[in-house]
Amino acid sequence: MRKRKICVVITARPSYARVKTMLHAIQMHASLELQLVLAGSALLDKYGDVGSIAEKDGFTICERIYNLLSGAAPTSMAKTTGLAIMELATAFQNLKPDIVVTIADRFETIATSIAASYQNIPLAHIQGGEVTGSIDEKVRHANTKFADLHLVASESARQRVLKMGEHASSILNTGCPSMDIARAVLEKPAIDFNPIEKYGGVGAEIAPEGKYIVVMQHAVTTEEMHSRVQIEETIKAVTALDIPTFWFWPNVDLGGESMSSSLRHHREEYDLDKARFFKNMEPEDFLRLIKNSACLIGNSSVGIRECAFLGVPVVNIGSRQTARERGQNVVDCGHNAAEIEAYALKQIAHGHYASEPIYGNGHAGKTAADALAAFDLKFHKTLAY
Amino acid sequence: MRKRKICVVITARPSYARVKTMLHAIQMHASLELQLVLAGSALLDKYGDVGSIAEKDGFTICERIYNLLSGAAPTSMAKTTGLAIMELATAFQNLKPDIVVTIADRFETIATSIAASYQNIPLAHIQGGEVTGSIDEKVRHANTKFADLHLVASESARQRVLKMGEHASSILNTGCPSMDIARAVLEKPAIDFNPIEKYGGVGAEIAPEGKYIVVMQHAVTTEEMHSRVQIEETIKAVTALDIPTFWFWPNVDLGGESMSSSLRHHREEYDLDKARFFKNMEPEDFLRLIKNSACLIGNSSVGIRECAFLGVPVVNIGSRQTARERGQNVVDCGHNAAEIEAYALKQIAHGHYASEPIYGNGHAGKTAADALAAFDLKFHKTLAY
Amino acid sequence: MRKRKICVVITARPSYARVKTMLHAIQMHASLELQLVLAGSALLDKYGDVGSIAEKDGFTICERIYNLLSGAAPTSMAKTTGLAIMELATAFQNLKPDIVVTIADRFETIATSIAASYQNIPLAHIQGGEVTGSIDEKVRHANTKFADLHLVASESARQRVLKMGEHASSILNTGCPSMDIARAVLEKPAIDFNPIEKYGGVGAEIAPEGKYIVVMQHAVTTEEMHSRVQIEETIKAVTALDIPTFWFWPNVDLGGESMSSSLRHHREEYDLDKARFFKNMEPEDFLRLIKNSACLIGNSSVGIRECAFLGVPVVNIGSRQTARERGQNVVDCGHNAAEIEAYALKQIAHGHYASEPIYGNGHAGKTAADALAAFDLKFHKTLAY
Amino acid sequence: MRKRKICVVITARPSYARVKTMLHAIQMHASLELQLVLAGSALLDKYGDVGSIAEKDGFTICERIYNLLSGAAPTSMAKTTGLAIMELATAFQNLKPDIVVTIADRFETIATSIAASYQNIPLAHIQGGEVTGSIDEKVRHANTKFADLHLVASESARQRVLKMGEHASSILNTGCPSMDIARAVLEKPAIDFNPIEKYGGVGAEIAPEGKYIVVMQHAVTTEEMHSRVQIEETIKAVTALDIPTFWFWPNVDLGGESMSSSLRHHREEYDLDKARFFKNMEPEDFLRLIKNSACLIGNSSVGIRECAFLGVPVVNIGSRQTARERGQNVVDCGHNAAEIEAYALKQIAHGHYASEPIYGNGHAGKTAADALAAFDLKFHKTLAY
After folding, report:
1. Closest CA–CA distance from residue C351 to any residue of chain D (Å)
2. Subunit contact D68:A64, Cβ cutoff 8 A
3. What pTM did the predictor assign?
4. Distance (Å, rounded) from C-alpha B315 to C-alpha B329?
5. Which chains touch A (3 or more CB pairs under 8 A)?
6. Complex ipTM, two decimals?
């Protein structure tokens, strides 16, 4: 019997970690064939080259789609998305997948949805039904409206997708595949690699044996003009904390460039002299590093999702994760250096929290692959009410 | 005080008629300024040149966006949409509108939504919340998910948009602006123009004084491969009816080209010798012609919407209008010549129906303009539940 | 030994006929493999579907590139070319040809040259070194400047390419492959098909047994605004001549649409009632039809090139073929009905001319294929002086 | 009288310096109006933000065209060019220039030529007729073939453009506008700014008062796979020389990213500890820095052009400037550390050379502006032979 071809499109660095165990489960599945497509910022070394990591993990990259426009124009998000649609349309025509999988809610993920739907290819969506701030909110639910199969990450997400008028039979709470890795890390939490040796990075010579914190702060595209000011508050707070820090560069979102520029400037001025800057790490290493940190500071969804499972204390800054379902481990604060510092000290003092399986119990990859194999192929739907 | 700039993007011929009274109301509004953008098939003479009609109606075209790819490739819908996003992004950057308005549910309307949302411009959507078949179903609800203001055309549509998680305060049932024209036509139904003299067209010399029918059948993009067979059934039925016929060419949708080719072929073979073929008419003339017809045959939404208000008997063929709310005036049938013919005879025998205001009471344009003026500008939203 | 992959890109209907014997020679060549790519107007039924003809001729289409934007915008030629570059870049990356072949001088042929050169693929150019009017003049010589191998169609063309600074070893006068077909037609000139039965077309029922003329007039893009006036003069002249006429529709060039519209208008008015309109014919049929005509009227390069070899009298109108090397068989005239009519009568009275092998002796296809096989692969060059 | 609108498109950092005096002369000219368009890498901070510099110099940026695709795909050059054509077509339609000016020979300059020519806008080309290696050679001469007016930089360039079949009346040897700045620098050579204070940069704290060298080495796109190896040889040589070094980062050309990566790597390893790295400087500062250097090492055309006028000793590496007309001040060598070091020592020992006005006498800007004002507007041409 011909294997069902599942084309997964990854358009950004963090999405890879989010679906890695699902990719493995598809690859291993008796009746599925994996077609992995990388696009946009997932291809840029600057933002962590997903291609090399994926190949090292045993995956073959079917297509590389270079659709990211350079430069911080107000039109960039739209044009990058328009280009992605045009390029993905060609890729899907050549690959002829049975199902296309789009992931989460970054602005360019809608390109995957459109290119598939407009060629009558059934679409599966990962991570629908969640609630956050930013443009992501619009994109995520629009993806839901294009999708024929919804593989959601939490029970409340399932409820919301259902309420939005999708048919119950098309929605499955698989949990988030990223929790599969978190589960493995919880089972074996010791850091078994040297971050600087393995990943280089720039900045201070710090070691993960001692006490350290992790910072991950991205731009909020709808507050783009405040990006520099926002990161400056965090920089002030981290400088004041004066603890060794693993800092991950901002991603490609509108405003990220000016955040990076601010960070580079402070580095050249010899501020942040206890910080080491990284672009990316393999998902297991990354979660292990976070698991052993005293606190995560920033606005990454990792703080909300993986850290709930890992029990890591988090100081979540600003509006980027507004409304996302969260655990006991998170405290929220504004873009204010004093506030950030105070909450960080409190969280460090508190220490680790109990694990909360809000986003899955750690078996999402296999469940998702099975659902893709079992899905009754169709690209037609009507509102349930 | 600076007037609020309202940019309305029209991407297809029928959308113009659907919003014409709203365009007038915006233009007349003390605190609004109209920016009219034409794109895609709205610009092609082949499908009825909206530009000339709009200019004759007193509107200025701010931008003409040529984004339609020639040729019936499987990738055309996606690439045409990708191009539209890229071109509209530039247009919006130049026009700097306060609100962008996207209309209904054709595949390329999502381009308007994306280009506006990704530049943080508030988006209003006309005709959300309805239910139909085809790819339009996905596109319409995705537009809803991008929109900040919903101007819907019926009470049931309002309910659906609300259920989908939009906030009640952002939804207004204005009715469909097209009913404003239908109301004027109902008040003064006599045909006051000579269709052939005014619009040319090709085919038989027929007059609107006698008994006649109207045919409007478009391709169903998700059944594209059956387009030719589907139109052939209708051709057979109309040939058998042997009544003077005003026939409007299929639109630009995937499959439309092969329908037109089939029609041209039959014309050259001297079939359909009682039919006159038109591309387009001014909205008032068009509704007046339909109002005075014995029956409308096809799958146009005009049969479901305007004809409910006008009380014109309709034979609705196939899946294109599946699930759209309808009045007593519609009978549904399959793509089968005998069935179409039989239902048409029955509908002609029945004669006109009572007017049903399902899609508005005929004051939508003004209501919509007022809503655009009153809307609290924002481009941020979260799900209501 | 691996065969050398030769990728020939055809972007317009007439180019197919021009290279057909070369395509066959490549396909038959022991050390070559043909990769045939169709793009732009070559794919549109409206302008004669090259794809079907090529497949009937035994060729496989490797890629179909839909890059033609609909609508007569001032920006269309540029944007269609930009799109072609983007799409051909992907195609070449997938096909990995050893040599790419670009043909002649239509505006979009530069896209082939750029997409190949910018990926370091050696480029061969057919029909360089000729001199004409219009934008083609710029495009043709720019193609020469990108090309690494020049397969020219006449001795004077070879001289010009040499003078432009290309190295003598990279230039070969193969003659035009279209003359290979003309040679076969000269050897067996009788019309062996019924044009209407085989190709349909619309208009008068005329037969190729009697006396007839052929009209082929395209828009001159740099005189686009005069297109309608120009074709009207020809229509007047042909109406006055009152001889059965095989008329080929204008091509896709800017201005062609308004010419076609004028022709359709006259047709509906029952002018041109001795004319039959065709989109396209197979090359052999086409040349046989011309060979047996009393006169060719218009501005097609067929009048200058193939008709020199065939000895058919030609009335060449306007600037489109200005400066192109021509034989005794051509008289030139302006866009003036009286003048066109007078010259046509004179040419018909004169009858056929002696064959002149200006554009080759009829063995170009084989010579070109051999040159492609023997070419020392490189994509680097410097001016010869 | 309406001023003639001259639209100059700058697509890369070095082009700005090359035409700056011409821009001023256009802006000052009684009958000209300047429309300055920035595109591609000229807009990226990473490669030196031309926009800020130009605005500081008193110019207004009419349009910013973001057409540069991120990531080092084999298709990037082609796609970036295709996008540029599409975006420039819109810009020219909005700006309605009387003449468009394209500069030199980078791959994307052909986009300017095509977008202008295909909209029937007369095209002027700066720096035609020169001879070099790389893909630039093809692009430069193709630009010549699109251009209606040729403003060349040397007598031998004028001869070559003439030989290529352009009409003598359309060619003017203005000299290179960059020499206008070089002339001013020669008249007042003292360095009047602190490079590190004014431009930041990263690396060693060096001062321009002492002896120093300058390095500028870009990727050769046709030798892209050797980029890293090539820069490593230069790094070895410069390390061995052990002299304070002002080093300018490689530009955006294919291969440049891997060169930069190699440089960053060596920096992090504390090699090159006497080097300071800069992105860009204002043209006057830049030439003053070079004028006072002991030697310029690399493959920039600055070494061949401006340095001939300034009399600065140059070690020119590899094939990038092959065949470009050069003065006594240049010695050529291969990609070999030992060779580079030896030649550099020899050049430093030799000291400065006499000024050679090969590329103009320093009044090019004014001459070019006058030519643009006097040019008989046309967009039609035929080969001169």
Report:
1. 32
2. no
3. 0.90
4. 9
5. B, C, D
6. 0.89
